[in-house]
Write a sequence for this structure.
């Protein structure tokens, strides 16, 4: 059974810092991995999708990497801003069953 | 274009009543998913549709939960005889196809059972 773990559970940093969020998964048989952002009381916004054959994806200040063989992904946020404050969720699209399996999320706070 | 929409945005119901939650996927998306987000459990998969068929219902927590999809578009999640433990945010997502495509989520329906 696929399990996804995100570390840390919460992170608070001053504005302007670069930071890394971590995600690990137990079964490397995945189609892809998605990073999402969730603001309080809102739905999920897709940030980046990495296919299983890819190593990384970039969008603006965000860069996500994937090491499928070791079951790890990182989300790098450059020059953080208060507007980046949200919960970040990692999810893998399991080959065994066509669904997303989510981690518990990292609650990120950027302090002005 | 329009994203995934869900209605109602909030629903308060009494224990024992039935509720219906609706999802309108992105036009042209053949795959549709329902997930549930509750405080203690995080985000969990409920059911997946490919067209009007549901190949995977493994996440439905009990036989009080059912879902259907018609015309390869709108989906309805029905919860019968609601219980307090059904209180959660119900999220719907759609994707172009079921295999390796990005899933796009709606804003969710917050269900509160009193």
């Amino acid at each position: 059974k696929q399990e996804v773990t995100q570390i840390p559970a919460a992170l608070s940093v001053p504005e302007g810092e670069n930071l890394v969020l971590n995600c690990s998964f137990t079964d490397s048989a995945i189609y892809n991995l998605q990073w999402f952002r969730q603001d309080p009381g809102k739905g999920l916004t897709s940030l980046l999708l990495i296919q299983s054959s890819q190593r990384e994806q970039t969008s603006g200040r965000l860069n996500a990497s994937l090491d499928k063989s070791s079951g790890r992904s990182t989300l790098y946020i450059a020059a953080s801003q208060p507007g980046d404050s949200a919960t970040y969720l990692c999810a893998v699209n399991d080959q065994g069953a066509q669904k997303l399996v989510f981690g518990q999320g990292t609650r990120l706070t950027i302090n002005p | 274009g329009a994203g995934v929409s869900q209605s109602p945005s909030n629903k308060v119901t009494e224990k024992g009543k039935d509720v219906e939650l609706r999802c309108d996927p992105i036009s042209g998306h053949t795959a549709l998913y329902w997930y549930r987000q509750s405080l203690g459990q995080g985000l969990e998969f409920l059911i997946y549709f490919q067209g009007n068929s549901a190949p995977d219902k493994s996440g439905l927590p009990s036989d009080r939960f059912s879902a259907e999809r018609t015309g390869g578009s709108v989906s309805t999640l029905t919860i019968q005889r609601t219980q307090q433990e059904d209180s959660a945010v119900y999220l719907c997502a759609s994707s172009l196809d079921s295999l390796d495509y990005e899933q796009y989520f709606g804003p969710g329906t917050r269900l509160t059972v009193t």
The first strand of chain A starts at residue 4 and ends at 7. Chain A is about 0% helix and 60% strand. The radius of gyration of chain A is 13 Å. The interface with chain B takes residues 31-32, 34, 36, 42-46, 49, 51-52, 89, 91, 93, 97-105 of chain A (CB under 8 Å).
